[in-house]
Specification:
mainly beta, Rieske Iron-sulfur Protein, 3-stranded antiparallel beta sheet
């Protein structure tokens, strides 16, 4: 495996990302809840560039007793990324699709050394 420098930990803000070229692959590195997560830049649906998608708090739409949705809320804890190709979304901490946990992003190994983030692919 080969190690690739991403950035300094302090250069990555909360809910920020870096997408880096690692040979013939791309890896997205994210900071969520103060933790670093790294994912290969391939959507589990159709291999689109998921790491370049929009980042937002998970949308919650509670269903009322009459089976209608009257409000929309955002999760305070679940941060998702949405693939720009077809709108498939994934939890940035777990890599799992919220409705189908079999659809999961592939985690990239990363290490933090001397305040610097490296991915090992």
């Amino acid at each position: 495996m080969t190690e690739y420098y991403v950035c300094d930990v302090d250069d990555l803000g909360e809910k920020d990302r870096r997408v880096v070229e690692c040979g013939d692959r791309q890896v997205g590195v994210f900071k969520v809840g103060g933790e670093i997560h790294a994912w290969f830049n391939r959507c589990a649906h159709m291999r689109g560039p998921v790491c370049q998608g929009r980042i937002y708090h998970r949308v919650l739409e509670p269903v009322a007793a009459d089976k209608t949705v009257r409000t929309m809320q955002h999760s305070e804890t679940d941060v998702h990324i949405v693939c720009p190709w077809h709108g498939y979304e994934y939890n940035l901490k777990t890599g799992k699709h919220p409705a189908n946990p079999r659809l999961t992003l592939r985690r990239a190994k990363h290490v933090i050394r001397d305040g610097k983030i490296f991915v090992d692919v």
